[in-house]
Specification:
Number of helices: 8
Radius of gyration: 20 Å
CATH architecture: 3-Layer(aba) Sandwich
Structural class: alpha/beta
Low-confidence stretches: none
Order of helices and strands: EEEHHHEHEHEHEHHEE
Oligomer: single chain
Mean pLDDT: 95
Number of domains: 1
CATH topology: Peroxisomal Thiolase, Chain A, domain 1
Largest sheet: 5 strands, mixed
């Protein structure tokens, strides 16, 4: 467990993609598979609780999505981008293997050359890990502030999963369960500006503790 006394969650921003894809829409695209396996319609929403997810315009890169959320956050916080001291990109989705997708976000936001940037990848926990990493650096006095961003693009995985399920005639009821998670994801972007607590941020929420567990059995 870590304990923090000086970490303020200053401002957040997000960007919702323009296109809505419902669970019913996905099942309609899988109608032939459902019919062959005798699966009832509505099971995707029933089992996940997800009625719809959002998708970007084709070709939208994770860095662009993350930068949109970052720009909103910077404007909402009323801060100068040149004052930001570090940037962590924490998505599962990336523009490419290297360079770090954080470098593209850094460019789009016009952050300073001495701003520390890198990617953090840990599946669905990446954003939380980015918060903890930044909180540690703030608490230790290594930086005064930073921006954690994420931009997920689900379009390719959803479409490829549907295509595989439709084309692979060996798929059975047991095998389709392994593809279930890939049909629940969606796209979106979020950013969080964190800084060292100051008198003028007394009304802002603070990060006081964090704890972690692993179950790899």
């Amino acid at each position: 467990m870590s304990i923090y006394n000086n970490v303020c969650l200053h401002t957040y921003g997000y960007e919702l993609p323009p296109h809505v894809l419902s669970s019913d829409d996905i099942e309609q695209r899988l109608a032939s598979v459902y019919e062959r396996l005798k699966l009832p319609l509505g099971r995707l929403e029933m089992m996940s609780g997800i009625s719809e997810r959002r998708l970007w315009e084709p070709g939208t890169r994770p860095s662009k999505a993350a930068a949109r959320a970052g720009k909103k956050t910077i404007e909402k916080a009323e801060i100068d981008p040149q004052e930001i001291q570090c940037l962590f990109f924490t998505s599962v989705s990336r523009d490419m293997m290297e360079p770090a997708t954080a470098s593209f976000v850094h460019h789009f936001l016009g952050l300073p050359a001495d701003c520390l940037i890198f990617d953090i990848s840990n599946a669905c926990l990446g954003f939380l890990d980015g918060m903890v990493m930044l909180a540690n650096m703030i608490e230790l006095g290594q930086v005064d502030n930073g921006l954690v961003v994420s931009g997920e693009t689900a379009e390719e995985l959803i479409n490829s999963t549907i295509r595989t399920l439709r084309e692979d005639k060996s798929i059975n009821r047991k095998a389709i369960k392994r593809a279930f998670a890939s049909l629940t994801i969606g796209s979106g972007a979020v950013a969080l500006y964190m800084w060292r607590c100051k008198a003028e941020s007394i009304d802002k929420p603070q990060l006081r503790h964090c704890a972690w567990r692993a179950n790899t059995d």
